[in-house]
Amino acid sequence: MPASSWRSAVQGRVLLLTICAAGIGGTFQFGYNLSIINAPTLHIQEFTNETWRARTGRPLPDHQVLLVWSLIVALYPLGGLFGALLAGPLAITLGRKKSLLVNNIFVVAAAILFGFSRKAGSFEMLMLGRLLTGVSAGVSMSVQPMYLGESAPKELRGAVAMTSAVFTALGIVTGQVVGLRELLGGPQSWPLLLASCLVPGAVQLAFLPLFPESPRYLLIDRGDTEACRAALQRLRGAGDVAEELEELEREGAACQGCHAQRPWELFQHRALRRQVTSLVVLGSAMELCGNDTVYAYASSLFWEAGVPGEKVQYAIIGTGGCELLSAIVSCVVIEKLGRRLLLMGGYCLMAGWACVFTAALCLQSSLPGMPYLAMACVFAFILSFGIGPAGVTGILATELFDQTARPAAYMICGVLMWTMLFLVGLGFPFIMEGLSHFLYVPFLGVCVCGAIYTGFFLPETKGKSFLEISEELHRLNFPWRAQGPAWRGPEVTESTEL
Q1: How many whole angstroms separate alpha carbon 111 and alpha carbon 411?
Q2: Four-residue CA torsion sign, 233, 235, 240, 246
Q3: Is 496's pLDDT higher than 50?
Q4: CA 56, 62, 65 angle in degrees (round to 5)?
């Protein structure tokens, strides 16, 4: 084998294994814990009622059972909110890789609570466990794309960052399969189903320590040139990394003499206006578009569409399979088509399918086959989400912000994402009850707004270095260069300070 081919093979293998080790205990856990809660819906509601009857001698009213169940579901994104606030300080003080490793403490604690909840007769243990898995997901959803985006070469940065969406979809499918009645979805095995989140956490603890820390973190945050060079050589193979190291040093040198930014300070700088606006608008749109509610309430959604009860669990697996397929396709084509086209196209398609879904629900009692058209629309909606919003939104904080502002940007993005997910998760059962056949109309409006904003305001970052992206964003924030200050590089020197 020629030397160049051998180096490429080594680079590809180490980078791929790093992606897998980070992903299995990262966004895989997010998708897995998002979907496994759907299978034991009725069993947990029955357990809640039985527990209350054993304590008080009388059952809970139906609306209170629904409220407790909604809280169990919604505490997951609430924990994610806390995790997002924790992610920035962790990524700064411990580094990207160590943050992912330490994050598994929350998974272990949650698995213990889930496993013993039935024996203890405590649905409060389920609530606390869901909160802790949410904290773990909140940390990993911020730190994993940061770690991978900083470790990848610029020509592969988009594809590597998109693997976070691939692992999310893979976790969703795995959770749906494991949750089948024939496996762990039965009335007696649901505590084991919820506690199975321990397995991917253990896999990450075993393999992630074998791979290097983010080279950018080592050089710009820690000032360790030799450790950065060693990490680059492991990730890139035996080739010369001098050019990339020089680019990192230029990026670090551009930060000299500036103070560190806090998350709230990002809103105060005109030079970051477009970046912060894009993060807020598109981060909110990703959660308010209604896709993630499908996984938490898939059973109810398909029952509403008229799908026969015995076929619902298999239809649910199809939803996760759709997102996994589209995430893989998007990962392959993102460096050819670019970020803007995938994001705008995804939202446009989602808006179209939401219209068809609403029409199918309205006509299901008068025309045959409408339940299956509605089910097909749900699949198409998820496919469209996976094409763009699922993965591209997670890249924004990595590419639109410089190295030292990035942890603060991920904190803002995480707080927004998990807050919106909490509100939608808590309110979706009542949206279904109140709007009935028109339950997807609010999400339709969000998709239209996301497509419009992307088309008019989001710059393309495909194939550009972080310095080139910073220069372009500076021109967009200061369209009349004579009125704006000269660009002197990133606003921040050390991300070791929040």
Answers
A1: 26
A2: negative
A3: no
A4: 65
Q: How far is CA 400 from the centre of its chain?
A: 17
User: Residue 32's closest CA among 142, 161, 170?
Assistant: 170
Contact between residue 424 and residue 290 where contact means Cβ atoms under 8 Å apart: yes
Closest CA to 137 of 201, 68, 195: 201
pLDDT at 415: 85
Stretch (H or E) spanning 394: helix 389-400
List alpha helices for 60-197, DSSP H.
Answer: 62-93, 96-102, 104-120, 123-151, 157-178, 190-195
Helix, coil or strand: residue 299 = helix
Tokens of 315: 């239809």
Q: How much is the pLDDT for 3?
A: 44
Cα 264 to chain centroid distance, Å, stands at 22
Query: Tens of pLDDT along 227-274?
Result: 888 888 888 776 667 777 887 777 767 666 555 567 777 787 777 888
Share of the chain above pLDDT 90, in %: 13
CA–CA distance, 354 with 368 (Å, rounded to integer): 20
Task: Report how far residue 260's alpha carbon sits from residue 258's, in angstroms, rounded to the nearest whole number.
Answer: 7
Find out whether 191 and 275 touch, Cβ atoms under 8 Å. no
> Token pair 């606030």 is at which residue?
85
The residue with tokens 């502002």 is 405
d(CA 323, CA 155): 25
Count CB-CB contacts under 10 A for residue 53. 12
Closest by CA to 101, choosing from 26, 17, 20, 42, is: 26
CA distance 372 to 368: 9
| Cβ 420 vs Cβ 167: under 8 Å | no
Cβ–Cβ < 8 Å for 69, 45: yes
CB 272 within 8 A of CB 400: no
CA distance 345 to 327: 14
Task: Say what the pLDDT of residue 307 is.
Answer: 67
Three-point CA angle 179, 185, 187, nearest 5°: 165
Cβ distance 95 to 46 under 8 Å?
A: no
How far is the CA of 222 from the CAs of 100, 151, 250, 266, in angstroms?
Answer: 18, 15, 15, 22
Burial 73-89 (b: 16+ CB within 10 A, else e): bbbbbbbbbbbbbbbbe
pLDDT tens-digit profile of 345-383? 999 999 998 898 888 878 877 877 777 787 788 788 888
Structure tokens at 418: 């998990």
Residues 6+ apart with CB under 8 A from 418: 77, 78, 80, 81, 83, 84, 134, 138
pLDDT band at 410 (very low <50, low <70, confident <90, very high): confident
